[in-house]
Specification:
mainly alpha; two-stranded antiparallel sheet; two-stranded antiparallel ribbon; globular
Amino acid sequence: MSERSAPPGALALVQDLVNTLDLGTGGDALDSAEGRAPFGLTEDTVGPARELRESLRATLLAHAGHPPHRAVTPLGALLARAPLVVTVDDTDGSAALAPVDEGPLLSRVAAAVAEAVTAGTWQRLKACEAADCHWAYYDRSPAGRGRWCSMQLCGARAKMRRYRAKSA
């Protein structure tokens, strides 16, 4: 839904996962094999992936200053289960957290969050404040105060509703 550019680094994985559910239509990309393929999911692993997705959505809403959309397992509790290891690059000595096994989605998301926290970009990944959207987007605004995934869609609708409410 968003016309915004992709987030930096591995945050694209987090954004893509959150955006597998279209709240407006109810369509869930994880229902199909094609939708699960980019995340390495099978029908057996889609349940935990959905739980992770909704915990991420609640966290991204918090980044935008909004309450959770519904009761979810806290993201920290889920990420605590992800086995990560510190890696050190032999050429430049840089260190990073990486999944012990590249397969599990939970470990890849945990590594992406750790990378984003280190880079200072984690707080800029947000969820649209529109209740029928909550699409994940990366806020590149100078002040970091973006509210909607799309100014042309969700932002325009919210502003029109506000205008009509004042005029009524």
